[in-house]
Each structure stands twice: as C-alpha cells, then as structure tokens.
Write a structure and sequence with these properties.
Helix 9 packs antiparallel against helix 10. The chain folds into two domains: 235 residues, Alpha-Beta Complex (Spore Coat Polysaccharide Biosynthesis Protein SpsA, Chain A), CATH 3.90.550.10; 70 residues. An eight-stranded mixed β-sheet has the order 7-5-6-4-1-2-3-8, sandwiched between helices. It has 330 residues and is an alpha/beta fold. The chain is elongated, with a radius of gyration of 25 Å.
Length: 330
Amino acid sequence: MAESNNIGKPILWIVVPCYNEEAVLPVTAPLFEAEVKELVAAGKVSDKSRVLFVNDGSKDKTWEIIEGLARENPVFIGISQSRNRGHQNAVLAGLMEAREVCDVTISIDCDGQDDISAMGKMIDEYLNGAEVVYGVRNKRDTDTFFKRFTAQTFYKLLNSMGAEVVYDHADYRLISSRVLEELTGYEEVNIFLRGLIPLVGFKSATVAYERKERMAGYSHYPLKNMINLALNGITSMSVKPISIIMSIGFITCILGFIGIIWAIIGAVVGNTIAGWASTICLILFIGGVQLLSLGVIGEYVGKTYLESKHRPRYIISNKTWEPYERKYKG
C-alpha cells in the first residue's frame, strides 16, 4: 500500500490510454483534472492523486500534448511506449507503472464517452471494501442498431465460449494496488484484461453510468478491431472452441459412418443412382469443417508460439517526470 499524505485518503491514479488523440485530449484533460480536484475536495482521495496518460505509439501530436500538459500542471503525468502495441497493452503499461506508487487506479479511455463523474461512485465502493469496481453501461441509446447488436453479440459470445466477462463493461474500471500486485502473476503476452481481472478475484462491485457521444476526433475501434478483440478474448481465456471442434468432428464421423452403411446397402440392393450434387455437398461440407477446424487450432498454436517467446508486453521509452531516464519493463 502506497503512503498517503492523509490517513484514510487513498492515492488515486487515473490511467488514460491514448492513441492518435490530439483532437480530443485538450478537451477531456481539463475534465479529468476537475474530477481529481472534486474528489480531493470531497476528502475521498489524496491530493497526491494524478492523471497518467499512456501514449500508445501515436503518429500525431498526442505525446507533445501530454508533455505540455505535464509541464503546465503537476496533476498530469505521462509515459510513452516505444511503438504502438494496442489498447490492452497500453492500459496494462499504465496500471503496472502506477501500482507501486498509488493505492487505487481507474482506467478510462480519453474520448470522453465514459462518464467521468462515475469515478466518485467507484471510489465510494472501494472505500466500502470493493477491490475491483466495474463501470457498466446502463443503456446504449447513443449506439446505432448495428453497433448495439454487435456489442451485445460480443459479450454473449465471450461468455458462451467460457471467457468470464462483465456484461456491457469495457475497460472503465477501478482496481486496487492489492489486485494489481496479484495481476503481475499473469504473464500472458496475449492480453485480454476484461477476462483477466475477473480471474484474479477479490471483492468486486459495479457502477452503472450512461455512455455519451465521443467529444472529438474519431473512434479507433471499428468493427474489424472488435472482431479481433473478441477472437483474442475467446482464444486467450478459453479452450472451449477446441472442444466444439471435437464435438463437430465426432458428429461428422457418425454421419459419415451412416453414409457409408447407406451406400453399401444401396450398392447391394442395386438401388444406386449416380449424382454429382450429393457428392459435391459432402465434399464441401467435410472440407469446410476441416479447414475451419485447422484455422481454430492454428490460432491456438500461434498464440502458444507467441507465449513461448516471452517477449515484453510493453516498452516504456519516455516519462514526463523522468525525462532523462529510460526504463524498459514488461
């Protein structure tokens, strides 16, 4: 537990991953600052609380903006990854950077869609004994039908495949330093925090909030990225697809065995009719099942290959509060 300047007041670090956010960062940064000041004034957190921006290898002026914010206001600090490593790795980098110097972290995207004012309720749940507090959307009125349908399908699919996730929860969550210490024992290269955090356990709570429209810029999470996230979540957290393949293979074998018996009986009684349609259908069906099975197995083999290399999950190249020191962690 980090030392607080006042007994009973935890030090909070708000972890904000940023990738090409030069348009929205100047808009939302003052909102994060105002929330920290409000929590300090309410006596809920220490005045040593900070907002940590994590630059995920942005190609625009995001890092320059972060450096400027840090120079002008001590509440803002920042780290920059050596290259783009993805949203989940950026969040992890910020959490691991914060765990030794704070009591509690709250991760949130910098686009302003997640209700920043919900942090107060999260801190209340923490003070009441919760070690993890999940921010959960209470409705999706701002989403299109397609976005709402795909998001709901995403969570249902993950849960059905064995990946334990909180419904309608993304990466807006509070995590205590105690949980973060235990999280360091999970050394997967293929990171899916929405599934990892529930695995750590400890007492948890949820806080409902209303998600808003993005304040500026554009989303960096199109449908393609959502699909990749779902696939990574399933294959990182569950082997159920392998079991499904085995079941499909077993059923296909039974159907094939029945087909062989049917073909033999037909040949014996002389009731055979030459037809290409049935042959083509069988070939396409069996071939499709085989290719799909190989693809799923290949996904697991590929992830095993990446895990075996033990490559760093993130590399921090710059820090605003240590401008001349370079640390490589992961």
